[in-house]
Design goal:
This protein is an all-alpha fold. The chain has one domain: Helix Hairpins. Helix content is 70%, strand content 0%. Helix 1 packs across helix 4 and helix 2 packs antiparallel against helix 4. The longest helix is centred in the middle third of the chain and has 24 residues. The chain starts with 6 loop residues before the first helix and ends in a 6-residue tail after the last helix.
Amino acid sequence: MTPITDLVTLRDALRDFCAARDWHRFHTPKNLVMALSVEAAELVEHFQWATPEESLALPADKRAAVADEIADVLIYLTELADVLDIDPIAAAREKIVKNAAKYPAPSR
């Protein structure tokens, strides 16, 4: 297996993983975005009722569980972008430019 070191190798590994299980037929944008929403909610659950300080100082077991949920969110987001033929890095770069125009940094 090729080491996963960037979004392209992650995307390719996910394509192979899904193809081996014949899951591509289920990975429509609708299904992927619903799964993404569920995984994002599971990530939120780890921080529900935590103070800001607690959210910054997660114990090792909670941090590992949060890492698993972050992975799930990233996986579904990567698959969604792949199915829709959207380059997530390019989309993020363009969004940063839009946000910079919308929210200019204060002059110093």
